[in-house]
Amino acid sequence: MEVVTMEGPPSRFQRARAALERFAPVVWMKSIGEISDAGLIQVPSLSWRFSEPHPELRGMFTSVVRDAPHNIGWFFGERRNSIIVPSRLVEDAGPDGVGYSELRIEISKSEQDFCIAASQDIELIIQAIAAQPAPPIATRLYVSQLAKGSPDESVCIVENLTGEARVGMVFRAVGAPDVEVRLASLHWYPLRPETRKRAPLAKVTLVGHGAGRIGLKELLVSVPDR
Question: What is the pLDDT of residue 105?
């Protein structure tokens, strides 16, 4: 007789990961369990890290966290990891998350109404993320060497991380978001044994106001065609 294994619905962790991976590969993620070992609904939060920085997604997450919830206020922040958490935890424990665990346990024990409201909201947030149109893949150039620079021009060696770079594309610098430059020249170096394990290297010229502020280890992200 054939044995049929019945699988339950996907967990919150699985649903959140599926929603996030529509935009980029997720290399690390944490989602607080919905129910504690004591059978209490816990204060929810999501934290994750994409395989590469994606500053073009910042506005989307900010608006979703602002507009999707119905019950309480929420916070979205980015450092090494991205995080979505009830604003109350940030206000009481600080943005660095020192004391999150203790505060979360205390609220879960004494304020189940708050936990239920937050759990309803996090579901709305996950649904809203899943419903967002995935943006086109941006081209990313990582500055590995600086050749020379002037206030309005920078010549540097870059790696092509994703996408296809071409002359005329406009890029923003992640470390200096007010700097917007145009790729004026592009020369890819041939693959050599010493660079075989690295992404393809290219010598590029970037021009525009503030181009000289682009520094070593800068990440440049292409701007969608206007």
Answer: 87
